[in-house]
């Protein structure tokens, strides 16, 4: 696979390292020439691009790994230059998808993505070939997404060790506000409050127990990316913050009134919910193959994969077998056997004609 990485910070550098380790060829581009030289020197790319348009035209897929505020513009530029497929790694999706649709006549070849991985080290210094191994990589295709572009983007994410799930762009933004953006703001605010309350950093460090360190760890992440993220996902973040502030107000009331019963119920409920979180999405046990005829049109693959995502079914492998006439084909999915029945039932309810076989 010929991959063009646009932007070589933490994500772009890690993608480059991961792909090259697995035998793919990577060309890199960045507005910062010094950073681009470092990227080449550390082995995160085979070569530096001296011609953005030519690199777009010659690649199999371009990956835009720049701050959220610049993603749509560069995605549109890559599509305009002839990149056959473009994806991104931004942590906000709906505004980017909408902007690209308005900027490019080839927006169906853009498959928006978000690898849920990171590092406490800033920029290229934190790049790691194994950053995505076992991580969740979210794709947010739409009804207009070209299915071959969609399938290639899935293959890239899987190639670097990630586990792919697919949901709608708007749902992604609402969920990520709760599990990523608000936690960042909460950790940052708690760290700031503690710093103001502490009698000097030395005393604060001596008092800081494991729980405080765990809760504020992400406050050490690179601050420059967050104003853009908060602006892009403002509405979802504000909604999530409102819910969090309301819940904190309720906790304050429990503590102030000495309501031990309500406090214990909250602590128990939260403990049970935390323990119920899956430790890993690793798949064990037998596998099943599901084959279903599909129309050869944009959006079909997105319908099926987002349906699987809504059911919590992990698609381990995917292939589209095109017909000679080009009007239809067969979608082949490999999923855990234990979850296959629910997906088959949902596909039938959605009008598909799946056939299941055990592997």
From TrEMBL:
<dbReference type="GO" id="GO:0006571">
    <property type="term" value="P:tyrosine biosynthetic process"/>
</dbReference>
<keyword id="KW-0028">Amino-acid biosynthesis</keyword>
<feature type="domain" description="ACT">
    <location>
        <begin position="289"/>
        <end position="359"/>
    </location>
</feature>
<keyword id="KW-0827">Tyrosine biosynthesis</keyword>
<dbReference type="InterPro" id="IPR050812">
    <property type="entry name" value="Preph/Arog_dehydrog"/>
</dbReference>
<dbReference type="InterPro" id="IPR046826">
    <property type="entry name" value="PDH_N"/>
</dbReference>
<dbReference type="InterPro" id="IPR002912">
    <property type="entry name" value="ACT_dom"/>
</dbReference>
<dbReference type="InterPro" id="IPR045865">
    <property type="entry name" value="ACT-like_dom_sf"/>
</dbReference>
<dbReference type="InterPro" id="IPR036291">
    <property type="entry name" value="NAD(P)-bd_dom_sf"/>
</dbReference>
<dbReference type="Pfam" id="PF20463">
    <property type="entry name" value="PDH_C"/>
</dbReference>
<keyword id="KW-0057">Aromatic amino acid biosynthesis</keyword>
<dbReference type="GO" id="GO:0070403">
    <property type="term" value="F:NAD+ binding"/>
</dbReference>
<dbReference type="GO" id="GO:0008977">
    <property type="term" value="F:prephenate dehydrogenase (NAD+) activity"/>
</dbReference>
<keyword id="KW-0520">NAD</keyword>
<dbReference type="InterPro" id="IPR003099">
    <property type="entry name" value="Prephen_DH"/>
</dbReference>
<dbReference type="InterPro" id="IPR046825">
    <property type="entry name" value="PDH_C"/>
</dbReference>
<comment type="pathway">
    <text>Amino-acid biosynthesis; L-tyrosine biosynthesis; (4-hydroxyphenyl)pyruvate from prephenate (NAD(+) route): step 1/1.</text>
</comment>
<dbReference type="InterPro" id="IPR008927">
    <property type="entry name" value="6-PGluconate_DH-like_C_sf"/>
</dbReference>
<feature type="domain" description="Prephenate/arogenate dehydrogenase">
    <location>
        <begin position="1"/>
        <end position="285"/>
    </location>
</feature>
<dbReference type="Pfam" id="PF02153">
    <property type="entry name" value="PDH_N"/>
</dbReference>
<dbReference type="GO" id="GO:0004665">
    <property type="term" value="F:prephenate dehydrogenase (NADP+) activity"/>
</dbReference>
<protein>
    <recommendedName>
        <fullName>Prephenate dehydrogenase</fullName>
        <ecNumber>1.3.1.12</ecNumber>
    </recommendedName>
</protein>
<keyword id="KW-0560">Oxidoreductase</keyword>
